Amino acid sequence: MKPKNYIIYSIVSLLAVFSFLFSFYRIAPNLHHHFQQIAFQTDVIFFKKYSCFAGGLSEYFALFIAQFFKSKFIGSILISLTGLLVSILFYFSVKLKWKNSSLVYLLIPIPQLLLLVLQTNYKYPFSVSINILFTSAFLFFSVISIKKTKVPVWLNVLIFGFLLYIISGGMYFVVFILGMLIQTFSFNTRNVLLNSLPVVVIGALIPVVAYQFIFLESIVDSYFKATPNLAVLLTYKTSLLFYVVLFIIPASYFVMFLFDKLLPFPKSLPKQQNNNILILAQLIAFIAFTFFLLKGIDQKNEKMKLRVDLEAANENWDEVIDLAANSDAYDRTINFHYNRAMAHNNELLVELFSYPQLLGAQAQFVEEPFAGEVTLLASDLYFDLGAINEAQHYALEAQTLLFYSPRVLKRLVDNCMIKGEYKAAKTYLNVLGNNLREQAWVENKRAFLNDTVQLNSDSIILEKRSFISTFDRITSSPLLRLHDLIMQNPSNKFAVDYMFAYLILNQQIEELIPYVQFLDDAGYKHFPRVVEEAFIVTKSINPNHEILSKVSISKETTDRFNQFVRIKNECGRDKALAKQRMAEFSNTYWYYILFQSPKITNASVGKRIVK
To answer: How confident is the model over 122-161, as pLDDT tens digits?
Structure first.
């Protein structure tokens, strides 16, 4: 094996292994799939949607590939393979012209590493990677065509450029034209202006022609559209690094052109020296560049948030609780799912404060302030509570943003089945039926809809139907919604727990007292710990309280409260010392009202919260 081939194969192998491991352990493609709600439909209407604008075909193809991101393993393979192909095509397109320059070898890892860094952003659309792959391929085949055939440069550019414009869209076409322009300089050094002018003209005209006669899009998008048009909650904000990746190929062409034509750079080295220097240079460059890129990546908190959301969507409540306990920074979404998980595990009124409730009830009900990001969260919570009309309302809101989301469509189907709206359920199910990865779920639901009598044997559907409120009012107050749910069915334990948690978080203990009677209906044989902690504080302030004076508090809670009060008195007004000494009480209502309650910290949604 020739030394240079040994170098190439070593670099490619190292890239492949590193890319897969980085994708699997750091990026986690299944989180991309979950957050973006990636969905690919097999029907003609879905295809037509993506065939009516420049770049739509690549987005369509990218969605087909990205649907397999649901598997972390397969997704990691696809990400690493895409980047690897870009790097290989990039390398060979450069090598075709500058094959004697030892700098060529240093270019191989760069595109793949940069694409990996972009992929760490969970809003990053995979269609960008696919478009860069297509651009690399078209540049590669254009260079081969120019070198191997007598077809004029301008005709190659016209054919390949037009095809790329249709497939990938404006910005990638611009990248292609720049790459071909630099290649034209290097192939025709004597008549640079004469040979480059047709390339410039073609580059200017194709988007204009497409804008006038083919596609319905703005003239700006005809030239510069680089990312898909998505809902605000999924919109990817381009950065300097994004444009570096986008133009890395023509930029590298230009650097190679300068070295080749303008600078006194040795094109070849003695064989053994060449081999040793290239191996050493490649290794150092690879390690240094990788370290530089990875050092600036801080996705831990965002990744943790998405992992919690994914486990909650899969109803893995124990995993949600464990992840929340291991999170380093406070997050409203994690707080929201922690409360849901505790309620599902019947521990909400025992372990409510085991996660810092820094936003109080603002993290229990997240629809205020309203934004696209909260629609799915709100729908899931109201489904848990049995407020199916509200769950449907927010699911429909989500559906306007995430048209083909499997998660949204499943929620709509379930809600319609509970409400007895079987025709609507079949409509949503037919849409979901065009998703290749949801066939098993669809067939299971169709069996129920084909014989609705079977629904009477489904315990979840029967339970949710019994929870639906028949109170004739529209309200945005979580308190009134919870009240209606409890009045509708006092055995709705989830609603009872959330009512108590809501009022305790808001420190509205007096308003909690009328609902004590519903604890028996919810299956409680004695007061939960958090309720006792709230009651004992009120009793200590007003020992002669008409109702609470008759309430019996357990000895364990009483002893802990006395210890807490003693430490507080010893610390006096030194709040920092008190917070330090009371750390063992951090999972109590008492600690919450002294140090964490929004009434003390003035914390609210949108403000930075320090734990």
So the answer is: 999 999 999 999 999 999 998 888 877 777 788 888 999 9
Residue 180 token pair: 């071909």
Helix (H, G, I), strand (E, B) or coil at 41: strand
Res 287 pLDDT > 50: yes
Q: What is the pLDDT of residue 473?
A: 67
**Among all chains, which residue has been given the structure tokens 């989301």?**
405
State phi, psi for 476 to the nearest 5 degrees. Answer: -105, 5
Residue 410 has pLDDT above 90, yes or no: yes
Nearest to 382 by CA among 399, 359, 365: 365
Two tokens, residue 427: 């409509």
Provide the residue type at 34 as one letter.
Answer: H
At 216, the pLDDT band (50, 70, 90 cuts) reads confident
Contact 343, 384 (CB under 8 A): yes
Give the tokens for residue 80. 């690493």
Burial (CB < 10 A; 0-12, 13-18, 19+), residue 342, is buried
309-358 pLDDT tens trace? 999 999 999 999 999 999 988 999 999 999 999 999 999 999 999 999 99
Name the nearest CA neighbour of 513 among 486, 555, 558, 551. Answer: 551
Tokens encoding 368: 């205020």
* Of 579, 578, 588, residue with least CA distance to 556: 588
Which segment of 220-234, 262-276, 396-410, 445-459 scores lowest on mean pLDDT?
A: 262-276
Q: Between 471 and 164, whose confidence is greater?
A: 164
The SS3 call for residue 364 is coil
How many alpha carbons lie under 13 Å from residue 52 in its C-beta half-sphere?
8
- pTM for this predicted structure: 0.90
Strand partners of residue 41? 435
The letter for the amino acid at 71 is: S
DSSP 430: H
Give the type of residue at 299. Answer: Q
Higher pLDDT, 428 or 261: 428
pLDDT at 463 over 70: yes
Q: Is the pLDDT of residue 267 over 70?
A: no
* CB crowding 115-141: b at 16 or more within 10 Å, else e: bbbbbbbbebbbbbbbbbbbbbbbbbe
Q: Which letter, b or e, does each residue of 175-197 get, where b requires 16 or more Cβ atoms within 10 Å of its Cβ?
A: bbbbbbbbbbbbeeeeeeeebbe
CA dihedral 382, 385, 386, 392 (to 10 degrees): 0
Q: Which regions of 266-413 does DSSP assign to beta strands (E)?
A: none
Contacts made by residues 293-298, CB under 8 angstroms, sequence distance 24+: 293/113, 293/114, 293/116, 293/117, 294/117, 297/26, 297/117, 297/120
274-283: long-range pairs with CB below 8 Å, 24+: 274/3, 274/102, 275/3, 275/4, 275/7, 277/102, 278/3, 278/4, 278/7, 278/102, 278/105, 279/7, 279/10, 281/102, 281/105, 281/106, 282/7, 282/11, 282/105, 282/106, 282/108
The sign one gets for the Cα dihedral 56, 58, 60, 66 is negative
Q: What secondary structure does DSSP assign to 522-591, as a single string?
A: TT-SS--HHHHHHHHHHHHH-TT-TTGGG----HHHHHHHHHHHHHHHHHTT-HHHHHHHTGGGTTSHHH
Which of the four pLDDT bands, split at 50, 70 and 90, describes residue 104? low
Whether the CB-CB separation of 493 and 523 falls below 8 Å is answered with: yes
